[in-house]
Amino acid sequence: MQLDIWGLARRILSGLMIGLVAIAFSLALPAIASADAIEMTVYRDPGCRCCGGWMEHLRAEGFEPKNVPTEDMEAFKRNHGISEELSSCHTAVLDGYLIEGHVPVADIQRLLADRPQIAGIAVPGMPIGTPGMESDDGVQDAFEVVSFDEQGNSAVFSAYSPEG
What we know:
By secondary structure, this protein is α/β, with parallel strands linked by helices.
């Protein structure tokens, strides 16, 4: 029996190439999967727990929030023109817009699709049932998503009825 060195070398090289392609593809999968993710930066009080729930809501809908714990959120909001009336526990910055509080993803998507000439949108306070503020019994407060501009003007962007 004669050993075919060239045939053996071809099979080994083919196996190595297939293995390298498989490794390269598996390493690229996370980048491919997150290529469509919409990045945003979320500034929040380090002691607040509900902000994490809101960020999970965002991740589940294709957003990629960057968590930035910020000690003096009042100063941050003041410096970004967010009034006390609009204030909540966290502020996100996304594509030139401010997203204040527990804003549902549908409203963020509408904001990005319509691109209105405003500074941002907010859910003032922390209404029960908003993303990140869900209750165990399913109760939801009525709440509004409010648009605001740099001059301090605001308007209802969308309204949600109570459920549960």
